[in-house]
Every structure is written in structure tokens, then in C-alpha cells.
Amino acid sequence: MTSAAAAPDIHADGHAATRAVTRLSVGVAVVLIALKAFALGASGSVSILASLADSALDLVASLGVFFAVRWAATPADEDHRYGHGKGEALAALVQAGLVFASALFIGWEAVQRIFDPRPVASGYWGVVVILISIALTGWLVWMQSRAMARSGSLAVAADRAHYAGDLAANGVVLIGVISGTFLAAPGLDAAAGLIVAVWLFWGAVGVLKTAADHLVDKAVPDADRVAITTAVLADPRISGVHQLRTRMAGTSMMIQMHVDLDPALTLDAAHAIVVEAENRLLAAFPRADILIHPDPRGRAEAHGGAFGETAQPELN
Q: Who contacts 273 (Cβ-Cβ below 8 Å, separation ≥6)?
């Protein structure tokens, strides 16, 4: 059984993983910008330009994530009693905006080049640089996946989604450079840039939706809600769960509920039952912050303020 005392260690491990991978993300972005700037100067390829613009925004976004995960990891204080976890959602929201801007710029440039094709020069350099970019980006996505498994960080997930899109986009760019250089078809190079723009736009929509869900306190998925209720009701002394409320704050899941207990129980006995329920929940959701209110079964009047029982279905 996972105890509440283990939670700080889990958080510390996750925060260490996010700090390390965000440093790596910034470093990779800097290297890719330098390589692609060189390749653009040598080739003049619009698909290389598209990839360079995306990498430049990657750096801005990665820097935002770099600082956001550190601020989000700071402990709760008097002004932020639920911690600073939503800083990650804000960073993801900004990142989505940057990706939208990148997609629009790349799309406009690609359309211009489709109607006014220009030859791709020195495409060999472009091919080499894009192959290196694919290798570096693939490695970064793998490292981000490992960090996500340890931390559940929304900001890292947004960064990973962006770089995963870059990985596929780099493949399209490679096709564009090869076609413009070796097939004498610069129009295909421009078309590849347009495909990159569409891909980035679609990826930004996904990041925006996830960040918005966190910021507006959307409940966790139904499967998690069922798992929460099942874990609590595993103790037959708890006969019902109601006013279940859940939301995400960065990597932490906030869980609040009322449970029905025998009204004859002493305060000590009721407290012990609630603590056991909390520990079962922590076993399933180690990063959760849990608040359980015990109600005397059959004797509790409706209560709970603005989000009280009239707004919440009972879950048994």
C-alpha cells in the first residue's frame, strides 16, 4: 500500500525528470537552429526555411517550458494553496499560440513558392542537415517520453507532441529537398512546406485543447473517475460516494468527495476509514491531492456550497 509519505518522493523524482529533459530540449533546439540556418543559406529551400522557422519557435516554446516546469514545481504558498501546477498549462497554451503563428508563416511562404517556384541549390547539405535533425529530434522525443512516464508533466507532453510533429515534418521536408535537388521539381519542395504547415496547425489544436481543459478545470476522464469510486468503495464500511470532484493542476490530480459512513462510528473510527481510503487512492494515483468528507449515512442534509449535492450525481 502506498502511503501519503511517499508522495513527496514521487513528486521530487518527477520534477527532476522534467528539469533534465527541458534542459535537453533547449539544447537540441539551439543545435537544430544552427544546422538549419546553415542549410538554408546553402540551399534556399522553402521546406528548409519552414523547418528553420519551426525550430526557432521550438526554442522559444522550450524556453517557456523550461521556466514553467520550475515555477510549477515550487511548493504551495499562502497565495497559491493548490500549488503552481497550472503554470504548465499556461506554458502549453503559449506554445500552442507560437505553433499557430509558425504554421501561418510557413503556409504563406509555401503558397508563394508554389506560384513562383525557385530552384533548390546545394541540396546535399540540406539532406545531411535534415537527416541529423531527424536523429536528434527522435532522440529528444524518446527522452521526453521517459520523462513523461516519470512525471506526467503537461508542459513536457505539449513539448513532446510538438517535437513528435517535427519528427514527421522533417521527413516531409526531406522529401521536399530531395525532390527539389535531384528531381528538379522545386514545386514539390514548396508543397512539402505547405504539408508541414498543416501538420503544425493540427498539432497546435491538440495542445490548445489539452491546455484549455486543465485551465477550465475539466474533470479527469470517466475511466479515472470510475477507478476512484471503485477504490473508495472497496471498503464495505463506506456505503456511498457523492459530490465527487476532480481536476488536474499540472501533474497533480485534485480529488474531493463525500462518503457515507455509519453514523454510530466514533470520530477516530471514521477518520481511520477515510485515511485507508486515501491510501488506496494514492496507490492508484500517487500524485493525487485528496480531500474526503465523511457524512453520517441517512442523516446528512444537502450541503457543500456552490458546488454542493444539487449539482453532483451520487456514485455508488
A: 235, 237, 238, 261, 265, 294
Alpha carbon separation from 251 to 11, 14, 104, 131, 277 (Å, rounded) = 9, 9, 31, 34, 21
Q: Which residues contact 146 (CB under 8 A, 6 or more apart)?
A: 17, 21
CA dihedral 281→282→285→290, nearest 10 degrees, is 70
How confident is the model over 248-264, as pLDDT tens digits?
877 788 999 999 999 99
Q: Who wins on pLDDT, 241 or 310?
A: 241
Name the strand (E) or helix (H) holding 247. Answer: strand 240-249
Q: What residues contact residue 254 under an 8 Å CB cut-off, 6+ apart?
A: 82, 245, 246, 247, 248, 288, 289
CA distance 99 to 203: 8
How wide is the angle at C-alpha 81 spanned by C-alphas 75 and 86, nearest 5°?
A: 70
pLDDT of 256 reads 94
Residue 3 has pLDDT above 50, yes or no: no
Distance spanning both ends of the chain, measured CA to CA: 24
pLDDT tens per residue across span 114-164: 777 665 555 577 678 778 888 998 899 888 888 877 777 767 777 777 777
The candidate with the shortest Cα–Cα distance to 242, out of 197, 200, 293, 285, is 293
pLDDT at residue number 37: 85
Quote the cell numbers at residue 30: 539551439
* pLDDT in the model for residue 104: 81
CA distance 186 to 302: 70
